[in-house]
Write a structure and sequence with these properties.
Blueprint (H helix, E strand, L loop, with lengths): L5 H35 L16 H28 L11 E2 L2 E2 L4 E8 L2 E5 L5 E3 L1 E5 L3 E8 L4 E3 L8 E3 L5 E6 L4 E6 L12 E7 L1 H40 L2 H20 L9 H23 L2 H16 L1 H4 L21 H10 L13 H15 L4
Helix pairs in contact: 1-2, 3-6, 6-9, 8-9
């Protein structure tokens, strides 16, 4: 362990104290044994007799060992307390955020799920796998899990802490050096827990503010692009359906409209007598019309699903795989993934996860999974 925060520095010092204490005990025991051998080696071959120490020797040895243990106990309490205390932000750290004074620690919400870490920042931005924090700033990490127990561990910066379902655990630390620090989940949480790694990138306070603004803009840009594409494809579908209507159908629709108009004119004298019946017919026709519209909306097939799936991809997948799906922050290029080439394979991967990717079963609905799989297999891998 190479400490780069006050807390890990305290723990590192305590480890060295324990090591030195253990070495002193080992050396003292061995010196006592060698001294006894040297003192009594001249009595070889004689009848064994009990060795008698000086009066009060046992009390002096016991007192020395007790005092030694008390010193270690007190040092352990002092250094452990210092390691778990909240380190304050220095003058070089992040003192304001979004133009407002930062009173207290910078709070980042961390969620563990099989098998990836998600980091939510104060401005609504988020990232997967990589946590970006400002240097010389007090950080509060609020840990929780969506499924099983995971352990967040970055030894150079903070103590090992469990993320437990239904409970929020808090970690306080401060990074005093810029750079990247790596960690790995330290609790068996399923078959892919070994690749459940993380990296903490420590940057200047100015760079941190730029990062979270850029992250928020990228997320918003991805969502807007998905909505725009979905709107355009909906318009294209509507124009295609209108173009598919034949001249004969148009003429038939027009003649039916004229016949309906004449029948309504003839039925005007009897309007007062049959007011309820047309109303019922109108309700029935409107219900039939809505059913017809619903069936038409569902008849869009894979194209409509892919359009809806692009929005799902932008909100849940683009952070790792990039806005275009060609690779991003820890996620591979989807064009190189065999399962992403087919609808069935993409649905299987999104549902069950694997290879470092978390499962989205229970997070996304079946319809959303089907839609995003269609978008991946047709638009990203298919090159539309």
């Amino acid at each position: 362990m190479t400490p780069h925060s006050p807390g890990t520095g305290q723990i590192n010092t305590l480890i060295w104290i324990g090591f030195i204490a253990a070495a002193i005990v080992v050396v003292a025991i061995n010196l006592g044994l060698f001294g006894a051998i040297r003192r009594f080696r001249g009595g070889r071959g004689r009848t064994a007799q009990p060795v008698r120490g000086r009066r009060g020797l046992q009390f002096r040895v016991a007192g020395t060992l007790t005092g030694f243990a008390i010193v270690l106990f007190v040092l352990g309490i002092i250094f452990t307390s210092n390691a778990t205390s909240e380190p304050k932000t220095t003058s070089q750290g992040l003192t304001s955020l979004h133009g407002e004074k930062l009173n207290g620690p910078l709070v980042i919400h961390v969620t563990g799920q099989q098998w990836i870490w998600r980091y939510d920042y104060p401005n609504g931005a988020f990232s997967y796998y990589k946590l970006v924090i400002p240097a010389h700033t007090e950080i509060e990490v609020d840990l929780e899990s969506t499924d099983v127990i995971h352990t967040w561990s970055v030894p150079d910066l903070a103590p090992k802490t469990d993320a437990v379902p239904g409970k929020v655990s808090h970690i306080y630390f401060r990074a005093d050096a810029e750079g990247e620090f790596y960690g790995q989940s330290a609790t068996l949480s399923g078959q892919a827990y070994a690749p459940m790694r993380t990296v903490v990138e420590v940057v200047t306070p100015e760079r941190f503010e730029e990062f979270i603004v850029e992250q928020q803009k990228n997320i918003k840009k991805g969502q807007e692009a998905a909505e725009k594409v979905e709107t355009e494809k909906t318009k294209e579908l509507a124009s295609e359906e209108e173009a598919e209507e034949t001249p004969a159908e148009k003429e038939k629709s027009a003649s039916e409209g004229e016949e309906g108009a004449s029948e309504s004119e003839e039925a005007e004298p009897e309007a007062t007598e049959s007011t309820e019946e047309p109303a019922e017919e109108t309700e029935e026709s409107s219900e039939a019309g809505s059913e017809e519209e619903a069936s038409t909306a569902g008849a869009g097939g894979a194209t409509a699903d892919a359009a809806a799936g692009e929005e799902v991809f932008a909100e849940n997948c683009s952070v790792c795989h990039g806005a275009t799906g060609h690779g991003g922050n820890g996620g591979p290029d989807l064009r190189t993934m065999p399962l992403a080439k087919t609808q069935e394979g993409a649905e299987q991967q999104v549902t069950n996860g694997g290879g470092g990717m978390p499962p989205f079963k229970g997070v996304l609905s079946e319809e959303e999974i089907s839609n995003v799989a269609a978008y991946v297999s047709e638009d990203i891998v298919g090159g539309k």
